[in-house]
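Schema walk-through. Below, the input block comes first and the output block second. Nothing else is stored per chain. Lengths vary across the set, and this one has 466 residues.
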Amino acid sequence: MPSLLDSLSRRDDAPATRRRVPAWLLPLTIVAGFLVLFIALFGDRLLPAQDVDVAVVLAAPAAEGSPPPGSNEPAGAASGPMLFQASGWVEPDPLPVKASTLIDGAVASVEVLEGETVEKGQLLASLVDDDARLAFRSAENEHRRLVSALAAHQAAISTVHKKLVSARSAVDAAQATSDQSEDQHKRASRLRIGAISEGEVTTARLNFARDQAMAAMAAAGVGEVEAEIARLELETAVKRHDVDAAAIEVEKAKLELDRTRIVSPMHGRVLRLLAVPGQKRMLAAEDDNSTTIAILYDPEKLQARVDVPLADAAGLQVGQAVRIHCALLPDRVFNGEVTRIVGEADLQRNTLQAKVRILDPVDELRPEMLCRAEFLAAPKEGAIDSNMKSSSALSTWIPESAILDRTAWVCDPSTKRVAPRPVEPQDDVRDGYRRISGSVRPGEWVVLNPQGLGEGQRVNPNLIEP
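--- output ---
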């Protein structure tokens, strides 16, 4: 019989058996991963939505003797019946202002931060200015050289003018000598033959001819000096133009140097900072903000851009009074007026944008803050008395069945999801509707008999007409 040792030896020599992964396991894992991801993203949509009845929140005049909505508004708030309301955002009026570089360069330092108040002319940032300083010094030196050359040239003209005086004096002297020689020659010529020798007569004649030539040469020298003066005068005009051109180059170099310091173009606040030390700013880049250092706005000039639903846009008009509410200051109501209506509607949102100037902004307001605008109807003169004014203010009304423990569940018609809103029921009741105060606004949908709902739950709303 084989021994135990031989059996173990044969077992060690046997090739190890490898366990292979089934080929179908990898695609099954991928499909399972996609399935888990799909369930995580859209799982709630796969479940059936709860059917609920919803009703529209109404706006109606408050009961006589009851405090109208917004009665806690400060004195001076715009008054009048509300036509409709819409959401919007605060922004600079009319536009923000960009502080930009006018040259290419790298940012050396930034002197302000976002939210800081700046004065007109205050330094915002600096670019690396070594090249600009050298160019400015070179332009100054070239200008000084040309100014000195012009001064030397004008001194040369003065010297040539003195030469002209000397040349004219030489002409006078040569003419006098010529006249003297002419007189001597005439005297010698009139003497009888034999009175003087023939050589003396010839000498007098030659001296006269020589002195005439010298006078002519002196006169030619005067013309030469005058021509030199005319040439130098023309060169003076050229050198003056060179000096002027050099002065312009100095101004250009100084402008380039000054442009390395970006200053605030206005008094205002830094809305957005778009530069950091070491960042390159380029004029020819495709990015619209490639040269922008900071975006500024005037905190005393703000407006709201409001997306008005097209169903309510017919009530828009320029100059219309508006009440503006902001979540930052819930107890404050800002007065506003419609300044312009944009020329194109938003097809996707089905809205028309209006610009509403905030007449009494405060320092706490910042651009891009959400706000709610209530557009008011213009009161007709003599149409209402003081008693009607107090009763014509609009208040919010919802069905009594929509109130559960001082809470109303609001349904978003676009996402079909519900969220709770705290409300404060009032004593006024009309046709099953109760007047409320709170964060529920006219036009929203509220759920009737909200039982067993959770925040963010998807529902299938059934709109009940009032």
